[in-house]
């Protein structure tokens, strides 16, 4: 009986050691992509202004530029726009590709004449940036749409 219990304990210890070991065939750790967001308001005359606060009565659209810093290969970028009340307003998806490691993706969000102005969706918004099928955003930014 004592011998059987010793064998069980040794097997259990062996399993724990093997579980914590790093396999020899494991490749390098997954690369964490890096990006930043720049927000540019475009008025009704086509003039552009960088910032984080924009007046909707002067704003035709909002340009969301994602500057990728460590991206290599072909990927899919998804922007998730969150309204001031926490609801998802829109998901905007598009391709992004880089050979050099850097890329800039411009996405235009219409503002004038949309639900934003029609239903008074003013306040603090959030844009989250996702890459491929990620469930956690790579980066994000906040901005205010004011009357």
Question: What does this entry show, briefly?
Answer:
The chain is an alpha+beta fold.
Round the Cα radius of gyration to an integer and report it: 24 Å
Number of contiguous helices: 2
Model regions low in confidence, pLDDT < 50 over at least 5 residues: none
Tell me the count of domains. 1
User: How much beta, percentage-wise?
Assistant: over 45%
Q: For the largest beta sheet, what order do the strands appear in spatially? A: 3-9-8-5-6
Report the major sheet: 5 strands, mixed
Just give the CATH class. Answer: Mainly Beta
Structural class: alpha+beta
Helix content: 10-25%
CATH architecture: Sandwich
Descriptive notes:
- This protein is α+β, with helices and mostly antiparallel strands.
- It has one domain (35-146): Immunoglobulin-like.
- The protein has two helices and nine strands, in the order αβββββββαββ.
- The protein has helices spanning 2-20, 115-118, and strands at 35-43, 48-50, 53-55, 59-68, 73-82, 88-98, 103-110, 123-131, 139-146.
- The protein has a five-stranded mixed sheet, with no helix packed on it. It has a four-stranded antiparallel sheet with strand order 2-1-4-7, with no helix packed on it.
- The protein starts with a helix and ends with a strand.
- The relative contact order is 0.20.
């Amino acid at each position: 009986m004592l011998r059987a219990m010793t064998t069980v304990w040794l097997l259990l210890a062996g399993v724990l050691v093997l579980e914590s070991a790093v396999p020899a065939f494991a490749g390098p750790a997954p690369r964490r992509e890096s990006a930043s967001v720049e927000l540019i308001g475009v008025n009704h005359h086509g003039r552009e202004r960088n910032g984080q606060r924009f007046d909707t009565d002067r704003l035709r659209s909002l340009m969301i530029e994602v500057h990728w810093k460590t991206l290599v290969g072909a990927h899919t970028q998804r922007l998730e726009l969150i309204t001031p009340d926490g609801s998802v307003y829109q998901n905007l998806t598009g391709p992004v590709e880089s050979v050099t490691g850097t890329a800039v993706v411009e996405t235009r969000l219409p503002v004038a004449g949309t639900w934003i102005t029609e239903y008074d969706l003013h306040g603090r918004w959030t844009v989250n940036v996702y890459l491929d099928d990620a469930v956690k955003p790579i980066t994000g930014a906040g901005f205010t749409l004011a009357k």
